[in-house]
Each structure stands twice: as structure tokens, then as C-alpha cells.
Amino acid sequence: MHLGQLWHLVAAAAFAVAAPARPMPRGESSPALLTGHAHWAAASYCTNNINSTGNAVTCAGDYCPEVQSAKTATLSEFDDSTQFGDVAGFVAVDETNELIVISFRGSRTVSNWIANLDFDLTDASDLCDGCEAHSGFLAAWETVSAAITSQVHSAMQTYSGYKLVVTGHSLGAALAALGGTALRNAGYELDLYTYGQPRVGNLALATYMTGQGVNRVTHTNDIVPRLPPMSFGFSHSSPELWITSGNDVTVTTSDIDVIEGIDSTAGNAGEPFPDVAAHAWYIEDIDGCQ
């Protein structure tokens, strides 16, 4: 399937029933919190944070200032670009804010990645009953799942009482969604924030993730959350934190709507002209460090 056909399918998907939007409440989903986790997602694009165990997390070009202002160190990294796509990221500690962070990197060639994205679902009953997941996303998570789970276990023992956070952008958001779900199933409490996440599975998986609590952040008419199309059996979890301000604009509370309802079109999915450029701007130029 070619990219032009994708655009047609994405536009057609906008006719699903919409759930109402409401202003984002202050507190747990504040712009400040979204910014902090976005900076962690941005840091995964910086090559200096891969293969850098023990070093502070830094971003050339100042793409992760909140991360750089804290006392941080990478605990382990993963980088597998030979199988199932471009799987990379790190596990890090933030002693200033008492966090253990898993950050998954997005695709380095997003346009090519979109054009080559397949729409295959596969059994994901290990995650939940009746669940199916995107075959490529699930296979990618499984290549690093054992190593990440082992590192998280060790880190949570070393840094007792720290909060576990899982995040990522684009392809990294898909891996964060699946990985965070698997880690929760393994008994870990965590905060899960994804930015520009594509659909990762069927309705059963979206329902299960909704019950667990996934903070799924979207931006205006970003094309990636519209893929793979609902017409191929894919669904999105709820709620969606929809950033309505444009590129290069500072995000305030009034710029973020909470969209409730699985597969709602009240937010990103209802925008008429999906765009690749909107995919790169989440609070900042989130993939700029690459």
C-alpha cells in the first residue's frame, strides 16, 4: 500500500462517532508534566545517550533542558536496528526528581517509516484476553523486553521508592505503550506517557490499556496517530491529551483538551488534513536531536 492510499484511509477514518472534549484539568496532566516527559522522549533521539552507561543524559541543541538540569545517569541502553524496525532507547535514573525512566526512540526516517508501515495484527493474548497487537510493534518490543525488565527490576531495588516512567515518541510511543502494558502486567506501578503514538492493536487491547491508564498525547493534525487505520481493525485507547496549538508555539493549559472515549474523533482523529510536520512538534522539536 502506498502513502497516497494511506492518506485516503486516514481521511475516511474521521467519520467515527466522536466523544466530547473537555478542558484539561490542572495537576497530573499539566503542561509542565507533559513537558518533562516530552524532554525524556526527546533525549532518546540523541545518539550520545546510546551506549553511554553511567553518563548523564544530555541533548545537543538543548532539546531536553529539564532532563539536563537534573542529576541523571543512563543505567542501560538498547539499540537493535537490524530486526523489526529501529528499536533503540535507554533506561535512566533521575535522582533529582526520583525517577526511573525508560525512553524509546522513534524512527529516524519517519516519512519512510510511514510509507512502509504494514497493517498486520497478531495474537497478543500474553498482554490481555482477546488482544491483538501490530505484529511489527509487538515483535520490536519482544526483542528488548527481557533486558529492559531485568534492568528495571535491578533499578527499582537500587532506587527504592522512585517512580517508574515509560515514554516515547512515534515508533517509540508504540513500544512504550506495549512495553508499559507488559511491565504493569508484571506488577510494576508506572506512569506511561506517549507522544504521537500510532494505533498499536485491536479494540480489546485499546480497552485494556484504557483501564490501565495510558496518557496518550497527540498534536493538532499529526498523521501518525491516525495509523494504522481503524478500517484494518486497529483502535486507540482513551483518554487522549490533544495539544491544539500549532508548531513552535508554547503549550499552555488552554491548549490541551482531554478527549474521552475509545476511538473518539473529537481530537486528532477528527482533523481533516493529517500532516507529517505536526508529528515533529510535541512541546518542542521532539525529534530534533537526531
From TrEMBL:
Q: Could you tell me one molecular function GO term of this UniProt entry?
A: hydrolase activity
Give the GO biological process terms.
antibiotic biosynthetic process; lipid metabolic process; monocarboxylic acid biosynthetic process
Q: Name one Pfam family in it.
A: Lipase_3
Which stretch is the leader sequence?
1-18
The record's section on InterPro entries has:
AB_hydrolase_fold, AB_hydrolase_lip/est, Fungal_lipase-type
Which residues are in the Fungal lipase-type domain? 101-231
Sorted keywords for this record are:
Hydrolase, Signal
Q: Which domain of life is it from?
A: Eukaryota
Recorded protein name is: Fungal lipase-type domain-containing protein
User: Could you tell me which species this protein originates from?
Assistant: Penicillium cinerascens
